[in-house]
Amino acid sequence: MRQIAERAGVSIGTVSHVINETATVRPKLRERVLEAIRSMGYQPSALAQGLRKNRTNMLGMVIPDITNPFFPGVVRGVEDVAYKRSFRVILCNADNDPSKEASYVRELRSYHIAGLLIIPAAGADIAGHLRAYASASVPVVCIDRVPDGWKGDAVLVANAEGAYLATRHLIQMGHKRLAVIAGPLGLTNAAERLKGFKRALNEAHMEIEPEFVQEARFDTASGYQAALRLLRMLPRPTAIFACNDLMAFGVLQAARELSLRCPEDLSIAGFDCLEFTRFTDLR
Predict the structure, then answer these.
(1) Residue 20 domain boundaries
(2) What pTM value is reported for the model?
């Protein structure tokens, strides 16, 4: 800053005001400072500025599984909006590990982030950590699901209603033996989707066999294993509602392995509308 001040013929304070936007600087002086900055290739330290202000332009974001194509789509939306407003995103992948997630949430506070966005992992017990952010006036938004005890901001989809509509569609197709592959029921979105499924059956005065409710992990492998269990039952279900598209893809794999055709032998409904579902075909 001293070298910039010397080159521009101004005080160090003027340079500081231009860089940090802490006071109005006359246009001619401001342009001299900016020209000196450009000619010297100076890049202000965002970290140093953040330490002075006790806040950076960084947003922390924690997701449970970067290999699940649903989550990168959410991250892309966050990054697009943040970039337009001169914020940058620090992305952390928790690998569906609550302890790793908690570690990331704790460490991000030391970066003086301007806000935190989080999609909680299954079994996460981080509401206390999130409240600590809120008490420090750092905004927190939970996305897609909320941890137990969290009463703050959240952006959610209509999980119960979406599951209800999907199940009602299967019932209207004439199916009488419907099964469901739910996600981890400790997650709010998984529990709500199961609730929507059961609501549709109750309205249709249909009973569901307890074994026709399978719990999986919101991934293809566990959806495949759950589908094999269901499709090897006698009588087997004629329709399966998988509570996310990755598990629905696992159901398709199991059906192919058992030489079942979709939709002739088995109807399958998923949840999320991921891009790859347009290219699935069992005929």
Answers:
(1) 2-44
(2) 0.78
